[in-house]
């Protein structure tokens, strides 16, 4: 093999490579560099692989190894230690780290900005970030981090303040404190306020500095001796009968050890959270359901060899006409996506939800205003930056695998079933997750990787390429929402009839749950005495849809907020007035019939907090949102925490939910600080498999609410002992906390008629979008009732990231397909808004605690983008007078900077 010589972090380096490899491959696989991440290679869009070559930032996935001959290469590992410390401390202080996958590449580029002395100019920093994507933060705190680091670097490495530069407002009670509240201010009630690390304070993210420097390993960063690599083969056709799989050419490729297909699976091939319809491999003679299907897996000595060989596997198919229209899929005689005979197959209808209250027809008859409108929403690519990865290691007659999914319970059971092993022979270790947004709930490559490692009795690591990841994992459901709404002369809602159709794609996944969620949230945050709602999740051969951030509530509330704006126009009032007279009050019924508790008052506080800003803006639109916390609908949900006192003395906190950027490890540590007054410096937090099996998946904004409730209880037990004994005398003791909710019911069931409490709790929001004189995004004000801001800095960061994602959903993001085949698998074509095009986002945190959950927290992970699209639509109408009922709204000036060139429409609306 040829070799390339270069200087790596100040030392001579020589590395072998093969034609076709990228320099990123050489750095990671040959040189052991882990700070440069592979988020999209060889596309060069995400920026995770940035290194410095001769002092200039370079995307290493776009450089061939031979191009580096004789050059000086510096990765984040080679940046001077004093600068590394300044940058990592600044990112930790400012909240610039969430999942952390993109940050090492950004920090590497930032090191150059510090040396150039240009960080004072915010526009320069934002422009420099144009080569980077972040799906978590909304960018503002990243820019803050770089500017703070720049100040510190000029100040001899000393941070300019112990407090972050970004402020936000706290809405208090029914009034609003207009003075900025610094996010390090303490709002705790227990002992934690003594050390500033308890509930309501904003200590930096747990292990945030390590994340910023790329030192917290993701699965792809893990290396073990004698490790092999997997390469996956996916279907080229959404609906095709598999006649044969020819692996002969692939077996002849260098380094190939073995190729696995369906015939090699000793146990069950079907996987799925709700129905086992997703095969780990499609078998010869079966029909593919979408292009995300896996056909085979090549195992070789290197990742490069495995992927090269996978391209040589030939699948002979008889291509069939795909089913792509959910309405036609339900017609008599339509081709069936899944064969009859399985208990979950009822034609192409996966699931439906229906419920009603009152007399809708009678209400329509006496309505002064009737509005009928159809809304459509698009599929969205989640675009988490860490592609799916798994490392499996044989353990005698069992297997251990490292997974970065959203939970371990289902992974553990399904991998055991696939291998036909008892559960005790399979061990799962949950690794750091580089973003998920709901799309890492289902098994992806864990079972195949565990199968290969178990049968070969050697460790195997598999990492999907960016294109494979995009081709395989779920998208946000595209929906068609037909509404008929009646109101009296003053605009008080009298009735809502909603019919919602969701294209769930090839596999069940969480499709039924998403359409259930859409139905439950179909009336938004409004009081409607007469309701008739039906939703359907329908199989097609389009890419599979699933539980992306908000899962169903976003689509439904884009529609309902549009209805409210149409109603305001008919009544002759503004967007604030129509909402103020209809929002839910304590004692009112939610769409499902659930009677709202006192904590719903937070919705009115959120709405009132933006009233004056809305009425003083030239071009503005507002929208409200409600998002349930937890699964609810009859599910039993729980949080568990164990606190151990170790030698030192030190405190170890065991948690069961995935840390994927939302900050759950940080908040459970705060709960222990709050209850005990102990310093966080003596505490460590880790995921525990036994607790994880009890907690289940980290989804539905529930992890912080449930985990903090459990940690609160464990901390109180430790605090009781600390009143009698010093900590060193408690070494060896263990304190357990658990919190269980089992009081919800599913709408439309007999149980719900007696107890229509369909959800654990809710969070509430009002968002205001303001445009400039050219109709482009200028500012977003996001007023959110989070119940209790456990960590205000992290909470605000979650909301800012949600708003950013919501703006892309509203304006520029669209995952289009033709005949079931994606039009593009490139990250650059997703339409994700860049840092320089992201408007100012101002967060108002409102705290109206709920009686359910830890410290009254309601959840913040998903509500951040629930109202955004509706607010954007209203703002655009205020600018050009055009009503928009379909997403994305790419025909607007606000969308122009972010819509991919290949998808831009010729016509752009202008001011009327």
List the helices and strands and how they pair.
Layout (H helix, E strand, L loop, with lengths): L2 E6 L2 E6 L6 H8 L19 E4 L2 E4 L12 E3 L6 H14 L8 H14 L5 H7 L11 H15 L12 E6 L2 E2 L4 E2 L25 H5 L15 E7 L5 E7 L1 H4 L4 E5 L9 E2 L6 E2 L14 E7 L2 H8 L3 E6 L6 H4 L19 E9 L2 H6 L3 E9 L11 E7 L2 E6 L5 H11 L6 E5 L15 H11 L3 E4 L2 H7 L2 E2 L2 E9 L5 E13 L5 H10 L9 E10 L5 E2 L6 H19 L3 H6 L20 H9 L1 H6 L3 E10 L7 E10 L3 E6 L8 H13 L6 E5 L1 H7 L7 H20 L11 E8 L8 H5 L6 E11 L5 E9 L6 H20 L5 E2 L2 E2 L17 E7 L21 H13 L32
Parallel strand pairs: 1-5, 6-36, 9-21, 19-20, 22-26, 24-25, 29-30, 33-36
Antiparallel strand pairs: 1-2, 3-4, 3-5, 6-7, 6-8, 9-14, 10-15, 11-14, 12-13, 16-25, 17-23, 18-19, 18-21, 23-24, 27-32, 28-29, 28-31, 32-33, 34-35
Structure description:
The protein is an alpha+beta fold. Helix content is 27%, strand content 24%. The chain contains 24 helices and 36 strands. Helix 3 (103-116) crosses helix 5 (140-154) and helix 11 crosses helix 12. It is globular, with a radius of gyration of 27 Å.
């Amino acid at each position: 093999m040829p070799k390339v010589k270069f200087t790596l972090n100040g030392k001579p380096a020589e590395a072998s490579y093969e034609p076709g490899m990228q320099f990123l491959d050489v750095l990671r696989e040959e040189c052991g560099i882990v700070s440069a991440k592979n988020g999209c290679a060889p596309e060069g869009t995400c920026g995770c692989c940035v290194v410095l070559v001769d002092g200039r930032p370079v995307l290493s996935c776009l450089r061939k190894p031979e191009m580096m001959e004789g050059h000086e290469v510096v990765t984040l590992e080679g940046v001077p230690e004093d600068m590394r410390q300044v940058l990592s401390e600044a990112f930790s202080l400012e909240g610039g780290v969430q999942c952390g996958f993109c940050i090492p590449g950004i920090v590497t580029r930032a090191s150059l900005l510090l040396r150039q002395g240009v960080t004072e100019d915010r526009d320069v920093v934002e422009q420099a970030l144009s080569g980077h994507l972040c799906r978590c933060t909304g960018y503002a705190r990243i820019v803050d981090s770089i500017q703070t680091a720049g100040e510190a670097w000029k100040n001899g490495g000393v941070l300019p303040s112990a407090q972050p530069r970004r402020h936000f407002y706290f809405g208090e009670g029914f009034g609003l404190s207009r003075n900025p509240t610094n996010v390090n201010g303490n709002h705790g009630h227990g002992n934690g306020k003594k050390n500033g690390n308890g509930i309501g304070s904003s200590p930096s993210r747990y292990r945030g500095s390590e994340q910023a420097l790329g030192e917290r390993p993701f699965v792809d960063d893990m290396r073990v001796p004698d490790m092999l690599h997997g390469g996956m083969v996916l279907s080229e056709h959404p609906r095709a009968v598999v006649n044969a799989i020819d692996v002969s050419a692939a077996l002849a490729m260098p380094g190939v050890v073995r190729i696995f297909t369906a015939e090699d699976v000793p146990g069950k091939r079907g996987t799925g959270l709700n129905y086992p319809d997703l095969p780990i491999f499609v078998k010869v003679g079966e029909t593919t359901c979408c292009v995300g299907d896996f056909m085979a897996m090549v195992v070789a000595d290197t990742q490069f060899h495995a992927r090269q060989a996978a391209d040589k596997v030939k699948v002979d198919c008889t291509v069939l006409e795909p089913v792509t229209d959910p309405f036609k899929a339900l017609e008599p005689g339509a081709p069936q996506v899944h064969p009859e005979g399985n208990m979950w197959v009822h034609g192409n209808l996966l699931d439906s939800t229906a419920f009603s209250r009152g007399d809708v027809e009678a209400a329509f008859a006496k309505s002064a205003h009737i509005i009928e409108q159809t809304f459509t929403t698009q599929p969205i690519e989640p675009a988490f930056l860490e592609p799916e990865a798994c490392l499996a290691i044989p353990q005698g007659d069992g297997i251990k695998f490292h997974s970065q999914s959203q939970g371990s319970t289902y992974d553990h059971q399904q991998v055991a079933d696939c291998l036909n092993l008892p559960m005790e022979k399979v061990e799962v270790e949950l690794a750091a997750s580089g973003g998920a947004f709901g799309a890492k709930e289902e098994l992806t490559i864990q079972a195949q990787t565990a199968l290969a490692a178990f049968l070969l009795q050697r460790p195997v690591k598999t990492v999907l390429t960016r294109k494979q990841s995009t081709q395989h994992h779920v998208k946000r459901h595209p929906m068609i929402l037909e509404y008929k709404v009646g109101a009296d002369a003053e605009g008080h809602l009298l009735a809502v009839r909603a019919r919602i159709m969701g294209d769930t794609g090839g596999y069940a996944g969480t499709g039924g749950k998403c359409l259930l969620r859409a139905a439950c949230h179909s009336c938004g945050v409004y009081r409607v005495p007469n309701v008739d709602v039906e939703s359907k999740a329908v199989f097609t051969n389009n890419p599979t849809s699933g539980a992306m951030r908000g899962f169903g509530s976003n689509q439904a509330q884009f529609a309902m907020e549009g209805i409210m704006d149409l109603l305001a126009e008919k009544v002759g009032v503004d967007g604030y007035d129509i909402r103020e007279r209809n929002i839910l009050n304590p004692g009112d019924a939610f769409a499902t019939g659930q009677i709202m508790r006192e904590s719903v008052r937070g919705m009115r506080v959120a709405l009132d907090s933006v009233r004056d800003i809305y009425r003083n803006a030239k071009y503005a639109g507002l929208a409200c949102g409600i998002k349930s916390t937890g699964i609810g609908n009859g599910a039993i949900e729980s949080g568990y925490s164990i606190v151990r006192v170790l030698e030192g003395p030190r405190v170890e906190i065991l948690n069961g939910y995935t840390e994927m950027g939302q900050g759950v490890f940080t908040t459970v540590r705060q709960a222990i600080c709050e209850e005990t007054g102990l310093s966080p410096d003596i505490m460590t937090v880790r995921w525990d498999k036994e607790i994880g099996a009890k907690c289940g998946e980290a989804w539905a904004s529930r992890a912080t609410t449930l985990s903090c409730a459990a940690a609160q209880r464990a901390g109180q037990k430790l605090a009781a002992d600390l009143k009698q004994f010093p900590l060193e005398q408690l070494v060896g003791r263990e304190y357990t906390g658990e919190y269980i909710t089992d009081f919800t019911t599913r709408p439309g069931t007999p149980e719900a008629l007696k107890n229509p409490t369909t959800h654990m709790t809710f969070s509430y929001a009002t968002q205001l979008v303001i445009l400039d004189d050219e109709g482009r995004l200028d500012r977003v004000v996001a007023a959110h009732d989070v119940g209790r801001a456990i960590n205000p800095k992290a909470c605000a960061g979650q909301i800012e990231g949600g708003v950013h994602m919501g703006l892309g959903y509203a304006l520029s993001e669209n995952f289009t397909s033709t005949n079931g085949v994606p039009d593009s698998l490139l990250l650059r074509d997703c339409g994700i808004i860049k840092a320089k095009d992201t408007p100012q986002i101002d967060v108002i945190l409102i705290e109206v605690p709920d009686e359910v959950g830890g410290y009254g927290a309601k959840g913040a992970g998903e509500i951040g983008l629930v109202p955004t699209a509706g607010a954007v639509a209203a703002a655009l109408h205020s600018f050009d007078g055009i009503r928009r009922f379909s997403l994305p709204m790419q025909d607007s000036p606000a969308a122009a900077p972010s819509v991919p060139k290949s998808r831009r429409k010729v016509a752009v609306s202008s001011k009327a």
